[in-house]
């Protein structure tokens, strides 16, 4: 008692053993502890209300502390709390919480000096079913003004189990030292570590300022861990990937710093299996602005995709119409959802630069990727997206204007000398075209769903291939079929091959919703000029093209395919129709219905040739008659002299 009066409370031992508190809330929401709590009297409530209503300036000002006053001298030799338990049961919600085996021991508790603290407990809940056994050991220190605290030698272990972890048992641990100064608004973590199952974090961190603009300085490291193992340890569903060995080596390390109110990361290193990212960034706590610059070496994104359903790979590129039909049916049965969270986009403030040495996605290999993205007030801009692709290169920029509920999309792209054969083969196992492609793409559309984007799309794609070949398709054979019919002969060649070389193929695709229209397809083939026009229905994956092979020279050594004067400059028709997702190589064939027009041209050419022959014969007969008359009148010698002049006259 006297120690309290002297402001120097001293207690030898504080002991609490066997506490068993049972708190219950009935179905009306009333707690049983209210029966032992004194209710406020009406007078007390009135006094409280009156005090709250007094103007601030009328409240008594705190008395200045005497500079000669002594700080609190607090000393407790021992604290022992053992076998304590608290049971809480809420009948209105069905929730129950139990704290049991609660033990606290501490000794030599003196302000300004360290003292040991040991806490042990078990907590259980019914909704959800959850239990944790915890133990905390540390050395605690507080100054006499109670505005500076320190914790050293922290060792806390929590063994958890129950529904949140799928019935699994999980251990979390904390260790290290902590310090805080409330007056100076500083805090620090020293050699601090935290772990959950196989996930471990280590940090040394200093914080200055407890308001909305703290300044951070330190370093954080997340040791390499397996995400798949972590999910299994936490009793969570597994992530299925095409490559079962991925997501098993993830790590992160970075320095922390920045101006007050900005969390800046430097020397950032992120490891994802075989991929390593380096860079830095910052986050503005006031504006939410995010700035990042990351460079990666190589990433195979296909390894992280969900595994294909059994049998899917058998239908790729071989006309598996049943698989395609099933896929379309499944897709049609799924309700369409919005692509972009518009409200979220409007709050983004981003400035991100990203680079990657190599990316494999959809079986395509892309090198030297560079991307630059900004976002502000709902306007998302990809200022640069470029890279190298199959011996060529590409560059693109895009804008998404999400400031309205009907976002606007703008895409511009240039592709230079990308080799089509390996690209199409790797992308879709399609072997139908080779050559270095150059493209210019300009597309605008609106909407926030795939169907709307397709329906509203407009623009054009211009393309040209300096040289290449059609594969799985011999246009020379188709042309020779028509020429042989015109010559009324049969082809004897059996080995035609499966390709058609070409030079300078070019054209323009006009985009109108789901339809691509092309009216100016041209290419130079051996002895022929390819001309074509048609449409592509992207929604139905349907192709409808009419090609014309204009004969401009010799095209094949087969005698039946010889180019006569009747055949030269006529058109051999070819049609390409059908579903290009099923069997691209079987789409094109000789067009017999249009060949009737070709036969008319051939007949017209033959008639012209016959007329020329008759004129030539008439000329010869007239020349002979004139020569005979001259010989009769002028003699043999004179007739020979004017012979050359007569040739000029009749020719």
From TrEMBL:
<dbReference type="InterPro" id="IPR007844">
    <property type="entry name" value="AsmA"/>
</dbReference>
<feature type="compositionally biased region" description="Polar residues">
    <location>
        <begin position="319"/>
        <end position="334"/>
    </location>
</feature>
<feature type="domain" description="AsmA">
    <location>
        <begin position="10"/>
        <end position="520"/>
    </location>
</feature>
<protein>
    <submittedName>
        <fullName>AsmA family protein</fullName>
    </submittedName>
</protein>
<dbReference type="Pfam" id="PF05170">
    <property type="entry name" value="AsmA"/>
</dbReference>
<feature type="coiled-coil region">
    <location>
        <begin position="605"/>
        <end position="632"/>
    </location>
</feature>
<dbReference type="GO" id="GO:0090313">
    <property type="term" value="P:regulation of protein targeting to membrane"/>
</dbReference>
<dbReference type="GO" id="GO:0005886">
    <property type="term" value="C:plasma membrane"/>
</dbReference>
<feature type="region of interest" description="Disordered">
    <location>
        <begin position="41"/>
        <end position="69"/>
    </location>
</feature>
<dbReference type="InterPro" id="IPR052894">
    <property type="entry name" value="AsmA-related"/>
</dbReference>
<keyword id="KW-0175">Coiled coil</keyword>
<feature type="compositionally biased region" description="Low complexity">
    <location>
        <begin position="51"/>
        <end position="65"/>
    </location>
</feature>
<feature type="region of interest" description="Disordered">
    <location>
        <begin position="302"/>
        <end position="337"/>
    </location>
</feature>
